[in-house]
Amino acid sequence: MITQTAVPWQTPTWKEELSGAFRSVDDLLQFLELEGTDLAFQSDSTSPFPIRVPISYARRMRKGDPDDPLLRQVLPLQAETLTFPGFVADPLEEARHNPVPGVVHKYEGRVLLITSPACAVHCRYCFRRHFPYEDNTGGKAHWQPALDYIAGDLSVREVILSGGDPLAANDNQLQWLTDQLARIGHIRRLRVHSRFPVVIPSRIDDPCLSWLGGSRLDTIMVLHINHPAEIDSNLRAMVARLKDRNITVLNQAVLLKGVNDSAESLELLSEALFAAGVLPYYLHLLDPVAGASHFDLPVSEALALYRTLSGRLPGYLLPKLVQDVPGKASKTYIV
Ligand code: SF4
How many other β-carbons are positioned within 10 Å of the β-carbon of residue 301? Predict the structure, then answer.
C-alpha cells in the first residue's frame, strides 16, 4: 500500500497511487475495519476479475459499514459466480461492431477507440469485464489500423477514447494519439470516458492537461460517478482544472441495486455534480453482463424511481435514463 512506501511529506504521483491500489480483499476489509464480517465475498485466488481499489477511493468509504455504496461497487461477492438467464459475457454484442482491432463502431458519426486495456479500479458491474482486451490492446503500433480506419470514414466526427480506461495509458502516447486524430480533418470532437479522475484525481496533472486541453478538437470528459459520496474536494479541484482548459465535463452513472437505487441518493448525486461543475448526462440501466445480476433493478422499479427524481430536479440536473440495446442505432431512451 502507498502508506507503507511513500515518503510522508510527498504527495504520491498517480502512478504510485495506481501501483499502491488494494489488490487483496483481505487488505481492503482490514483497512475498512471489516475483518470478520459475514459478507459473502470471493477469495482473491478464485476471482477471474480481481479486486482493484485505489486507496484514495477507499478513503471515501465509511469504515465498519459492509453496505457502504462505494465498497459495494468494488467488492467481489460470491453472487458474481451465479449464472442468471440473459446475463452474458458480451451483453452489448460489441464483437459484431469491431471492424479493426481497437475500434468499436456502433453509432453513426462517432467511433470508440479502446485506448488501454487497464483500469484504475475494477467495477464489479462493468459490461466489459469479459472484453477480449488481448485482441484490442493499446499502444502506437496497435492504434495505427484504428487511425487508418477513422481517417477512411468521412462520416466520423467524434472519437471516444475508452477502454478499460484511456487514462491508464501514459501521456506521451496519449499526446501522440490526439495529435494523430487532430490531423484527420473530418474529426471535430474528442471524448474521453474515464473513471481515473474520480478514483485517482491526481491523474489530471500538467502532462495530462497538456494533451487534453491543447488540441484543436473540442474536448469532452465524461466521468463515471454513481454516488454522491464519490465526490470530494480533490475531485472538485480536478474538475476546476479541466474547466480552466475549456473542457466540457459530463457524468454518466449506472443505476445499481444496493448502491444508488433511491431517489434521495440520485438527487444528491445530481446536486453534488452540479456544485462540482459537472452536468449529469446519462443514467444507464445495468447492462446484463455475466457476474453482475445482483446489481440489477427491474425496469418497473427504475421507472418509478426516475419519475420521483423527475419531480424533484430541474431538467438540466436530470440525467437521461437510457439503455444500450444491441442492434439499435443509438441508445434507447427509457422515458
Ligand atoms: S473503470 Fe470503467 S471500464 Fe474499468 S472496470 Fe470500471 S466501469 Fe469498467
Answer: 13
123 in ligand 1 pocket by Cβ < 6 Å? yes
- Which residue's C-alpha comes closest to atom 8 of ligand 1? 126
Q: What is the pLDDT of residue 3?
A: 47
Our mutation pick for probing the ligand 1 site, out of 165, 167, 192, counting the most ligand atoms within 8 A of Cβ, is: 165
The number of the ligand 1 atom at minimal distance from the alpha carbon of 125 is: 7
Q: Look at residue 40 in the predicted model and tell me its pLDDT.
A: 82
CA of 143 to the centre of ligand 1 (A): 20
Would you say residue 34 lies in a domain?
Answer: yes
Q: Which atom of ligand 1 is nearest to the CA of 164?
A: 3
At 295, is the secondary structure helix, strand, or coil?
helix
Bridge partner residues of 312 (DSSP) = none
Q: Ligand 1: distance of its center to the CA of 240 in Å?
A: 23
Q: Establish whether residue 287 lines the binding site of ligand 1, counting it when its CB lies within 6 angstroms of any ligand atom.
A: no
Considering the domain architecture, whether residues 99 and 77 belong to the same structural domain is answered as: no
| The three-state (H, E, C) secondary structure of 60-99, written as one string | CCCCCCCCCHHHHHHCCEHHHHCCCCCCECCCCCHHHHCC
pLDDT digits (tens, 9 = 90+) for 89-132: 999 888 889 999 889 999 999 999 999 989 999 999 999 888 87
Dist CA 116 CA 138 (whole Å):
5
CB 112 within 8 A of CB 74: no
- The CATH code of the domain that includes 202 is 3.20.20.70
Domain end among 51, 81, 111: 81
Ligand 1 in reach of 321 Cβ (< 6 A): no
In a domain, 161, yes or no: yes
Quote the pTM value. 0.94
